[in-house]
Amino acid sequence: MRLKMGILLDLLLVFFCVYLIYAIITGKKLFHGLRAGAQIIEPKPIYSESDIQRIGLHLKRLIDIINESIDIARKSTNAETKLSRLGVANDKLREIHDYLGRYPSISLSHLEKLQSRINELHEEFNLSGINSIASGQVLTARALLKQATQLKKEKQFDAACEKLKEAYSAYGANELMTKDFLRLPMYLQLAGRSEEGWDLLNDLLKDNTSIFDQAEIAHQIQIFLRKEKKYKLAVLFSAWEACEVVERDLFNVRDCIEMADIQASDDFLREISKNQEVYGYTPNGNPITQYSYDFFNNRLLESKTIEFVRSKLESDLEKSDCSEKLEQLSNDLHEYITSNNKYRLSEVIAIVRKYVNYDENGVFRLQQS
Fold first, then answer.
1. 3-class secondary structure, 108
2. Residues 336/239, Cβ–Cβ less than 8 Å
3. Is the pLDDT higher at 127 or at 115?
């Protein structure tokens, strides 16, 4: 019996030794597994004040990016830009929430407002069909203008006119320039619909009163009238363009002068511009450092010369068989231009009528406004 017990004890001892050796060999893995599981219940680390400040600055930058992206998405007229910036805002807001989950000791207020702004944009974009525009399913005004150009090249003038009209009411039409709207009357003329084109030019002249638009519209009217061989009426708009070119450049020069005076009154602006090249001086004696001033001023001086006025009138007067009126009309118009800073179409009409009798009846009706 004692022998059996001894054998049993020996077996138990052997078994224990084997188990101990096994435990030693596998102990790291076992403890590692225990430690891995224990990570879940370990106390959260305590971060230093500098850590919190660093994280806070990063979160502030993320908020700034979100606000910037939302603003760009609202203001941009490019569908792809609007969607991409909205995507950035979404991503950065998710990143903020990730940070707050990892660092619960940090809290941010007004995140609900950011989320609300993003949600509003999502709703706005869904209603306006931005996704369809960005994917090309819906054409923008610029894309439609390109189609109109192609139709014109193919001499499908009526179809080109309709495509332009479509462009003027499409997404992005608010970004079109005056020259884009001046295409329609010229296309109408090509389509044999000159009366419609002339009426539209009159409307554009009446509705777009900016000095920049007036000069551009007057120039296009000259081209339209020359194609109709209405050279006498073209003289009027050559004279009107000469006036508006002067008024436009005078505005630009005055704007440069005003900006220079503002710059001189601001310490910071004055400091950063002190080493810049000077192109002139304001009546107050302040330096003008805008390069454009030199360009505008030189062009203004040139456009107020008698030679410039004569060059604007000469061709149309010659084709109207009124060349003998060139000197008299040029002198009168030049005196009007140099004696005034603002010009009225009705006053220019009165000057031109003294020398040129143009036809206002029938198709070519001039709306005097």
1. coil
2. no
3. 115
